[in-house]
Amino acid sequence: MLFPLLSLVPLASATLLPFTPQHIFSNPPSHDEESALRIPTAYESAVLGRRVLALTPLGTLSTIFPSPHDGAEELEQRPSGLAGMPIGMMDYIADCEDSGNPTILAINIATSFRNAAAGSNISLSLQWTPPYPPSKRISLSSSEKEAVPYSAANLPRFSLLGYLEKVEDADTEGLKKCFVDTHPDSKYWLPGNRIHTSEWARFVVQDVYWVGGFGDRAYIGWIDAVDWKNVTKKEWEDVRLPGEKKGWKEWAADSLREWEL
Ligand SMILES: *[C@@H]1O[C@H](CO)[C@@H](O)[C@H](O)[C@H]1NC(C)=O
Ligand SMILES: *[C@@H]1O[C@H](CO)[C@@H](O)[C@H](O)[C@H]1NC(C)=O
Predict the structure, then answer these.
(1) Distances (CA, A) of 220 to 14, 70, 157, 210, 214
(2) Which of these, 249, 234, 226, 56, lies nearest to 154 by C-alpha position?
(3) Nearest residue to 99 (alpha-carbon basis) of 233, 246, 197
(4) 173-207 pLDDT, tens per residue?
(5) Going by fewer Cβ within 10 Å, which terminus of the chain is more open, N or C?
(6) Residue % of the chain over a pLDDT of 90
(7) Mean pLDDT of 76-92
(8) Coil/strand/helix, residue 218
(9) What are 130-149's pLDDT values in tens digits?
(10) Shortest-distance Cα residue to atom 9 of ligand 1
(11) Which of these, 125, 101, 124, 123, lies nearest to 231 by C-alpha position?
(12) Which residue's CA is the nearest one to ligand 1's atom 6?
């Protein structure tokens, strides 16, 4: 009795595909014969990531508090003992240089930029947020009342790791227009304003960690920074992310093309 039951298991899981994710937070082992879905390559994922970067105006900057220096803790009135502690804070970004290195308007007194100035490395985390809810969604219950209108675990997110570099004043006119187009309120804290000292900064990407969605259909892993920077505007303009248009299906397998089918 036991043997026939067991032999049904692979069949059952195969017929559920692609409706039940088989590998959620990691990719299946390579040459997995059972995988019915094509997983995008790291380069294709870089193209998707560059599109996310181009379309996403907010990110989370993570930095690490420095060792105590020159009474900085008292000056900043922060609790003692935070050295080495990471802190993530939302900030405005804009893809103004179209080089894979986002533009940031760094306010000197803000925690992320103080930590960076004190020598912290920095990461920038982004997530893709579809403008429309899916018409067919991933859901284990049939409730329509769920707080999140889509399965965020199956959507792209990534972290850029690197450092900040000041953009020289001679190169900032175009950045200013681009950044204010993306963030109109940022005109109040542009470099030279009377309230806060600020400067244009380039987030120089050294490494990219990508989670494209469920691991049975999306790439999860590192993307080469050379590939990341080599993606052309034409490439990222030619792909689509899930939920860019109304009527998308969350279970679409090929993240490059089939979300809208
Ligand atoms: C920044 O990261 C690099 C690795 O990329 C590491 O060698 C260096 O020590 C880090 N700097 C600090 C201040 O932690
Ligand atoms: C960059 O992309 C182009 C095609 O767009 C390709 O021919 C070239 O080999 C790539 N360079 C690197 C370093 O990957």
Answers:
(1) 22, 42, 10, 6, 8
(2) 249
(3) 233
(4) 999 999 999 999 999 999 988 888 999 999 999 99
(5) N
(6) 56
(7) 91
(8) coil
(9) 988 887 776 655 555 555 66
(10) 121
(11) 101
(12) 121
Q: Which atom of ligand 1 is nearest to the CA of 121?
A: 1
**Residues whose CB is less than 8 angstroms from the CB of residue 189 and which lie 6 or more positions away in sequence, other chains included:** 105, 107, 195, 196, 198
Which of 99, 230, 238 for a ligand 2 pocket mutation test, highest count of atoms within 8 Å of Cβ? 230
Which residues contact ligand 2 via a Cβ below 6 A?
Answer: 226-227, 230, 232
| Short-list 179, 131, 126, 133, CA closest to 157 | 126
Confidence of residue 252 (pLDDT cuts 50, 70, 90): low
Q: Is the dihedral of CA 153, 154, 155, 158 positive or negative?
A: positive
Q: Is the CB of 230 under 6 A from ligand 1?
A: no
Closest-approaching ligand to the CA atom of 236: 2
Give the CATH number of domain 4-138+146-260.
Answer: 2.30.110.10
Is the Cβ atom of 99 under 6 angstroms away from ligand 1? no
Q: Residues 11-20: pLDDT tens digits?
A: 334 344 445 6
Output 26 or 106, whichever has higher pLDDT: 106
What is the distance of C-alpha 244 from the center of its chain? 16
Long-range contact set of residues 106-109: C-beta below 8 Å, sequence gap at least 24: 106/164, 106/198, 106/199, 106/200, 106/201, 107/189, 107/196, 107/197, 107/198, 108/196, 108/197, 108/198, 108/199, 109/196, 109/197
